[in-house]
Design brief:
The complex is a heterodimer of chains A (122) and B (106). Chain A is mainly beta and 122 residues long. Helix content of chain A is 0%, strand content 56%. In chain A, strands 2, 4, 5, 6, 9, 10 and 11 form a 7-stranded mixed sheet that branches. A 4-stranded antiparallel sheet of chain A has the order 1-3-8-7, with no helix packed on it. In chain A, β4 and β5 form a beta hairpin. By secondary structure, chain B is mostly beta strands. Chain B is built from no helices and 11 strands. Classes of the chains: A mainly beta (122), B mainly beta (106).
């Protein structure tokens, strides 16, 4: 069973940047679309961004568009989230998750990391 | 697309039949998934394509619906099922989750 491990979280001042990483074990990383999902303290899940298996397609939530950039390095089985111009409302646990996507459709986010915490505060 | 779950929370007992409703603000065909989350843990995929049970998920979980109205049913609630449940649409981007339904012990 593939595992995902996030890192890069921490405490950062408003307006600063942070880059999250998500490393996948196993050999199937390149076959999956990869998502970032976040959860503010005591709140529900908020989808953040997605990148297709071949990096050709990327989509973002309106709340992060223009500030966050998703990327991946399939040779390293690693997903990234570059977060710029951070705001206090970006404070959350950030999860990466994989999703199988084929011509037939999507199959849900079936493997998730344990999450990494980002705190934006002065 | 806005996803609205009901109720937001409720209390139940083991053995109860439980139903959670999710409504989309516009038609999403069957592009809906259900997730379970326990405190301090990552979400877990239960159902995708509105009614397809994810591998390894107990058969007491089932999903139904299409278009704008969907339900998640737990036929006989077990102690391991007390958690928060989220629906999510994947008809288009941005993907959106419902606000969650917390199932608590009575």
């Amino acid at each position: 069973q593939e595992q995902l491990v996030e890192s890069g979280g921490g405490v950062v001042q408003p307006g600063r940047s942070l880059r999250l990483s998500c490393v996948a074990s196993g050999s199937t990383f390149t076959f999956y679309a990869m998502h970032w999902v976040r959860q503010a303290p005591g709140k529900g899940l908020e989808w953040v961004a997605v990148i297709s298996f071949d990096e050709r397609s990327k989509f973002y939530a309106d709340s992060v568009k223009g500030r966050f950039t998703v990327s991946r390095d399939n040779s390293k089985n690693t997903l990234y989230l570059q977060m710029n111009s951070l705001r206090p409302e970006d404070t959350a646990v950030y999860y990466c998750a994989r999703e199988k996507a084929t011509i037939a459709g999507y199959y849900g986010m079936d493997v998730w990391g344990q999450g990494t915490t980002v705190t934006v505060s002065s | 697309i806005r996803m609205t779950q009901s109720p937001s929370s409720f209390s139940a007992s083991t053995g109860d039949r439980v139903t959670i409703t999710c409504r989309a603000s516009q038609a999403i065909s069957s592009y809906l998934a259900w997730y379970q989350q326990k405190p301090g843990e990552a979400p877990k995929l239960l159902i995708y394509a509105a009614s397809t049970l994810q591998s390894g998920v107990p058969s007491r979980f089932s999903g139904s619906g299409s278009g704008t109205d969907f339900t998640l049913t737990i036929s006989r609630l077990q102690s391991d099922d007390f958690a928060t449940y989220y629906c999510q649409q994947y008809s288009n981007y941005p993907r959106t989750f419902g606000q969650g339904t917390k199932v608590e012990t009575k």
